[in-house]
Predict the structure.
Amino acid sequence: MRTAEDVATVRRCTTGWRRLGHRIAFVPTMGAIHAGHVSLVRRARASADYVVASIFVNPLQFGPGEDYRNYPRPASRDRLILQRERVDLLWKPKVADLYPEPDRTRVRVQELDRKLEGASRPGHFEGVATVVLKLLNVVRPDVLWLGQKDAQQARLIEQMCRDLHLDVTVRRGPTVREPDGLAWSSRNRYLKAAERAQAVALARGLAAALHALQNGERSAARLKAAVRRVLSEYPKVKEDYVEVADAKSLEPLRRVRGRVLVAVAARVGRARLIDNLEWEAR
């Protein structure tokens, strides 16, 4: 596995591969690599000839008081895992390389960036869209792999790539879960033992919503109530939001129709966790 920091080296590698007719898959991460990232890397490997992964803790997507400075950065461990998974190029850009002074350009995906996570974290998705566009402009992959756990982020990036005519296919890998159902997240590292035992509430709340959907429930209010009943059984879990929305527009729904996203966010100790499910009647 080759490691690069500067833009020129990444461009040299990927340009050379493209000239030889090879397909390139890209997995952007913020590091603290876990099973969810590994799943994406494996899907990337199966979809292309070369795999590029990036590790960049993007300051632009962290709001005031969020955990940018304390975000986990286990660099040696991350490198070993990605090397084991046969990543061809690991890109670890510096902040000054992605945001050279004076840096004045930002990317917004209107409407999609103001709901759910966007409502709770103003400016977050402007930071996400801006950095992903920068990364894509350097790597120029054929396939971009994103995780379903960050469903709103994936939806927003899909829209951005479509609207800006980027020549890349955006693919989603399913949410990877721990044995008790907790979705893998780099922020799971923040959980103390007692908090970790309660964090499973998010997945169990979604399971209750799925059970209701499969049994014919179509009222968004009753689906949200089913999730909240489960969350209420876990006193260390503090709800941020529970929503039932159209999976494409992210508009909140009163009744389920078409493909829907059931999304939940909550604080457990110092960790802010998110989870979701997408469902469509067969």
About this structure: The chain has two domains: 2-173, 186-277. The chain has a mean pLDDT of 97. The first strand starts at residue 2 and ends at 4. Residues 2-173 form a domain with the Rossmann fold fold (CATH 3.40.50.620).
